[in-house]
Amino acid sequence: MASNVNPTVRRRRLGQELRRLRELKGMTAEEVAERLLVSQSKISRLENGRRSISQRDVRDLCGVYEVEDHRVVDSLMQMAKDSRQQGWWHAFGDIPYSVYIGLETDAASLRVYEPQVVPGLLQTPAYAEALIQGALPETPTTDVEKRVQVRLRRQERISADEPLRLWAVVDEAALRRVVGSRLIMREQLERLVEQSQRPHVTVQILPFDMGAHPGLNGQYAILEFPDAADSSVVYIEGVTSDLYLEKAHDVQRYSVMYEHLRAQALNAEQSRQFIADIAKEYARH
Q: Whole-prediction pTM value?
């Protein structure tokens, strides 16, 4: 796959354009589905970028929407072709959260709240392996190793020439929970301090004594993209399926929650000292 082609983002962008064309035509997804003799759910999946879209699908939809500009049709057809290419993550086989990886790969910034674990982009290999083994106890060793390798590949965004802007608010519980061993935890917290010193990485800790806060409902991440045509996405990880929120009012609500989390957390320097102190506690035992 060409390095500048991200199939996940291409599908989202194409879906957004197809939705725009449908709305300009004043048609509902149900009406389009009836015209094409397909299910309404297929039209919805094509528009939200969760389903691969063929050039034939694009041609048929453009016909329904009476798109007469051949340049527009050709551009959409090319996007459909690009969206069917494979991202680097496909080389690792079936990855449950491949849609998220595609979004993260193309994102310009990522704001994440983690109540239980160290964010994946900041994990050491040993911590990642112990975490995956503990969270998925019935997973074969080969699959655990594959997941670790994918996580490490994702981390390349942090050290890229145009790095991802990462802002992480992490609950104290993630620092206290012993994943693997005390040695693994010490090394992980030392890595966290080291990574937080990068100019494009900010880590803030929410201590226990802060009490109730807007993040008590659980983990979430907000992804923003360099192209204004790509709307921001709120990602909520699940056990059997994940949730992606793209509506403006949903993104706004989670963004406001995140601002409250950042305001209640220790600042960056205080957080580094807090993490370093806990790392020393692991070293003493």
A: 0.77
